[in-house]
Amino acid sequence: MASLVESFFSSETAPSNLDVSLATTREFIQFHLKENRLFCFITSGGTTAPLEKNTVRFVDNISKGTRGATSAEHFLNQGYAVIFLARRMSIQPFTRHLQLDEILDSLSDGTIHDNKVDFDLGPKGKKIFSMIEQYKKVKEHNLLLKVDFTSISDYLFLLRGISQLLSKCEKRAFFYLAAAVSDFFVPAAELSEHKIQSRDSTQLTLKLTPTPKLIPLLSKEWAPLSLLTTFKLETDPSLLILKAKRAFTDTGPNHRVVVANLLHETRRKVVLVLSHEKQHREIVNSLESGKEIEELIIKELAQIHHDYIAESN
Amino acid sequence: MASLVESFFSSETAPSNLDVSLATTREFIQFHLKENRLFCFITSGGTTAPLEKNTVRFVDNISKGTRGATSAEHFLNQGYAVIFLARRMSIQPFTRHLQLDEILDSLSDGTIHDNKVDFDLGPKGKKIFSMIEQYKKVKEHNLLLKVDFTSISDYLFLLRGISQLLSKCEKRAFFYLAAAVSDFFVPAAELSEHKIQSRDSTQLTLKLTPTPKLIPLLSKEWAPLSLLTTFKLETDPSLLILKAKRAFTDTGPNHRVVVANLLHETRRKVVLVLSHEKQHREIVNSLESGKEIEELIIKELAQIHHDYIAESN
Fold it and tell me: Which residue ranges run through the membrane (chains A, B) (predicted)?
C-alpha cells in the first residue's frame, strides 16, 4: 500500500501553491502552539479527476463543501484554530451566509454617498450581524487559515504536507476529513495532452485508476497521535454502516470516528461510527430546532477530542 | 440524426424546472415583442454528465460561465432583451463584479446601525457604482430573464423549449450559444442506480455515448429564421479553425458565426469564423485597453445581426 502511495507522489505533479501553503501553515501552527490552542484540520469540497493535461473535462463530485464550511464556524466557536483545506470556489465559512444576488439587490436599493452604500441586512439581519461579529474575532485572533485545491493530486499533496506539519501538535490536533475525495483518477502518464475529441457515434471509453488509500498512512505515519475523523457518504442505506465500519481497516488507533450519512439526509441525520464503541451514535436534527446539524456533531466530537487528550498514553 | 434526437428526448427525463421556465419565457417574449425589442438568447457555463441516477459523481467541464455572463451585460448595453440560460451556480451578469470575501471584509469594517451597514465600495467603487446603475435599469425594464440547468439533459430540454418559443421572434432573435455542452453522456437507461463502488485495485471503465447533435435541428427546424452564433474551444492550435469551420456542417443558412478560441487565450483573442465570408475576423484585446473582449465581440455581432435583419428575405 505504502509503495502505491510513493509511486503516486513521484509520478504526479505537486500543485503550484504547495510551497507557499506549507510555509503559511507552518507559521500558523507555530503561532497557535505558543497560544496553547487546539487545532482542527478540516478538508472540504470535492476533488476533480482531470481527463486531459490541458484540462477541459474532469470527473467531479456533487459536494459543494457545505458540511466543511459550516463545521469550520462551529469548531471556531469551540475555540479551535482551524486549517481549512477546501476546493477552490467551494462554500466558505462566513461568506456562506451571504448571497450575491441578495447583496446586489440590497446595493441597488441603497443610497450611495461618498463611495459608500447604506446596505440593508434584510430579514436575515440578526443572523448576519452575529456572523460578522464572530468573523471579526476570528480575524483579530488569526484563527482561520484557508488553503485551496482543485484536483485530486493537488489535494493529496496538500493533505500529506499539512498532516506532517500538524503531527508536532500531537493529540492537540483534530483531523476532520470531510472532503469528497475521488475514488478514481487518471494517472498523469495516461492523460491525453489535449481536449479529447468527439467523433460521431463513437463511444468514449474512460479507464480510471483507483486512488491510492492515504488514510492508513496518514493515521499510522504522518500524524500518528492526532485524532482522526473521516466521512462516508452513500446513497444506498443497506451499505452505509458496513462501509463506515470498513473505513477503520488498516488505520491506527487514532482513527476513532467515521461520520456516515445518506446523500438525501445530509442536513437531517448522521451516524457517528466509533472504533472504540460497539454502539454507534445517531445525531438527528429537526427543522424546528433552528440549529445546524454541524453544531450538534461538533459538540459531540469536541467532547471525544477532550476525552482523547485526557487519556493516559 | 433527427431520430437520435427524438430518442434522446423520449428516453431522458425533463428537468423539474422545465414547465415553469418555459411559461416565464413565453411571458417575457410576449412582453418584449410588444416593446419591439431585439432578443438575445445566451447559454452559459458547462453541462454535467452524471454517472449515477442518485448522482454523486459526474463528468464536468472547466467552463465557469465568464464569457456568457460578461456578454449578457454587453448585449443589455446594446438594448437587447436577454434570456440567460446558465449552469446553476455559474458566474452571473452583474454579481460577477462582486466578490463575497471582499464584501464580508467591507461589512466587517462597516458601522452597523438599524439593520444597516455602511458598505464601502472600496477601490472598485466607480466600476461597481456604474454596474449598479445598469442593473437598476435592467430590472426596471425587465430586460433579463434567467433560467438555470445542471445536467446535459436539463440543458437540451430547455434549449429546445426556449428555441421553439423564440422562433416566433424570427430574425429579431439572436442565439449566442456559449455554454460548454458535454460531447458525451451516459444515457439514463445505462446509469447505475447508486454511487459506483470502488474496489481495491480494480480499474473503473466508463462508457460514454456521444451527445446527439442538436444544433442542425435547432438551426433548420426549431428557430429557422433566427441568427445563430455558436462557440468552439480547443487547446490544440492546429485544430481550432478546422473545427470551427466544421461546425457549419448540416446547419442552415441562419448559422452565420462561430466564435473560436484557444483555452489559454480566452480573455485576449477570439476568431469570428463566418459562414458567408472566406476571411475570418480576429478580435484581439490588449490588457491596456481597459475593456473586456466581450465588448468588442458583441459590437461586431450586433452589427452582423443588424445587417441580417436588413437583408431582404
Answer: none
Name chain B contacts of A55, Cβ cutoff 8 Å.
62
Mutation choice for B interface testing from A190, A201, A235 by most B CBs within 10 A: A235
* Interface touch B234/A194, C-beta < 8 Å: yes
- Of B146, B150, B173, which Cα lies nearest the Cα of B69? B146
Question: Residue A133 pLDDT > 90, yes or no?
Answer: yes
* Per-residue pLDDT at A200: 58
Report the Cα B83 to chain-centroid distance in Å: 9
Q: Cell 461546425 appears where?
A: B247
3-state secondary structure of B272: strand
How many Å lie between the alpha carbon of A64 and the closest alpha carbon of chain B?
10
Whole-model pTM: value is: 0.93
Mean pLDDT of A87-91: 96
Q: What residue spans define the domains of chain B?
A: 2-196+205-312
Chains A, B: CB contacts within 8 A come to 189
* Residue showing cell 426549431: B222
- Kindly indicate whether the ipTM for this predicted assembly is greater than 0.85, answering yes or no: yes
How far is A60 from A182, CA to CA, in rounded Å? 8
Tens of pLDDT, residue by residue over A193-237, are 877 776 656 888 989 999 999 999 999 999 999 999 999 999 899
**Which residue in this structure is represented by grid cell 501553515?**
A25
- Give bridge partners of residue A259 from the DSSP assignment: A231, A272
Residue type, B143: L
Nearest Cα to B42, choosing from B231, B270, B262? B231
Q: What fold is seen in the domain A2-196+205-312? A: Rossmann fold (3.40.50)
What pLDDT was estimated at residue A119?
74
Average pLDDT of span B233-262 = 94
Residue (of A104, A102, A117, A98) closest to B119 by Cα position: A117
Cα nearest neighbour of B96 on chain A: A100
Of A10-24, A119-133, A257-271, the range with the lowest mean pLDDT is A119-133
Q: What span, in angstroms and rounded, lies between the C-alpha atoms of B82 and B100?
A: 25
Q: How far apart are CA B229 and CA B271, in angstroms?
A: 12
Question: Is residue B69 predicted with pLDDT exceeding 70?
Answer: yes
Whether the CB-CB separation of A180 and A152 falls below 8 Å is answered with no
Torsion, CA A47, CA A49, CA A53, CA A56, rounded to 10: -90
Per-residue model confidence (pLDDT) at position A261: 94
DSSP state string for A99-137: -HHHHHHHHHHSPEETTEEEEE-GGGHHHHHHHHHHHHH
Residues contacting A306, CB < 8 A, separation 6+: none
Q: Which helix (H) or strand (E) holds A255?
A: strand A255-262
